[in-house]
Amino acid sequence: DVKVTQSSRYLVKRTGEKVFLECVQDMDHENMFWYRQDPGLGLRLIYFSYDVKMKEKGDIPEGYSVSREKKERFSLILESASTNQTSMYLCASSLGGAREKLFFGSGTQLSVL
Amino acid sequence: EDQVTQSPEALRLQEGESSSLNCSYTVSGLRGLFWYRQDPGKGPEFLFTLYSAGEEKEKERLKATLTKKESFLHITAPKPEDSATYLCAVRGIQGAQKLVFGQGTRLTINP
């Protein structure tokens, strides 16, 4: 089975801190994604990557950046955390075809105080 | 812009009481419509992909159907363990590899 692993299940940070969320997949998938999930708003795409060192902005990239130095690892970076970035963050990966489904990690619940 | 709307937001059923969840979508050329199940505190788990109008897929008590404008997730004789949030998502021609999600339907099955 495909496994997408997010490094932290729960994270509490202070406003202004730089925050790193890490995601690793073990199935050699080309594509990786970062979504955030908020009550009433559903899942919204922050960034995605279709190859090493390649990245594309999603629907809500402001305040975030990403890094993909190796195929299996995709990192989400909050340069200066703010309270409105308190959310559940979900990482996902998929093969490269147009019909491929996404496999999700268990999520990181981030609280910014 | 691709959009997905799910209804109802929440649904409470008795065990054994069949019902349907709706997913309405607008997309610039459908590449696939995806159903996921999400349990509290966990990531979404894949259920089905539908590619063209008229297609149907089944898994245990769940059956997904697709028309040109909407998809239904039919739940037959549900059990308490079917309680979860069900998410619908689409991938369109212009959306590259990303999925656009609806807000989900929170389903509760009472014993």
Describe this structure in words.
The complex is a heterodimer of chains A (113) and B (111). With 113 residues, chain A is mostly beta strands. Chain A has no helices and 11 strands. Helices cover 0% and strands 53% of the residues of chain A. In chain A, the strands form 2 sheets. In chain A, strands 2, 4, 5, 6, 9, 10 and 11 form a 7-stranded mixed beta sheet that branches. Chain A has a 4-stranded antiparallel beta sheet with strand order 1-3-8-7, with no helix packed on it. Chain A is globular. The model of chain A has no long low-confidence stretch (mean pLDDT 94). Chain B is mainly beta. Chain B has no helices and 11 strands. The mean pLDDT of chain B is 95. The interface between A and B is medium-sized, with 29 and 24 residues.
Question: What is the H-and-E element order of chain B?
Answer: EEEEEEEEEEE
Rounded average pLDDT of chain A = 94
**Fraction of residues of chain B in helices?**
under 10%
User: Percent of residues of chain B in beta strands?
Assistant: over 45%
Helix content of chain A: under 10%
CA(first)-CA(last) distance of chain A: 37 Å
Q: How is the topology of this model organized?
A:
The complex is a heterodimer of chains A (113) and B (111).
Chain A: E1 4-6, E2 10-13, E3 19-25, E4 31-38, E5 42-49, E6 56-57, E7 64-70, E8 73-78, E9 87-94, E10 103-104, E11 108-112
Parallel strand pairs in A: 2-11
Antiparallel strand pairs in A: 1-3, 3-8, 4-5, 4-9, 5-6, 7-8, 9-10, 9-11
Chain B: E1 3-7, E2 10-14, E3 19-26, E4 30-38, E5 45-50, E6 56-59, E7 62-66, E8 70-75, E9 84-92, E10 100-101, E11 105-110
Parallel strand pairs in B: 2-11
Antiparallel strand pairs in B: 1-3, 3-8, 4-5, 4-9, 6-7, 7-8, 9-10, 9-11
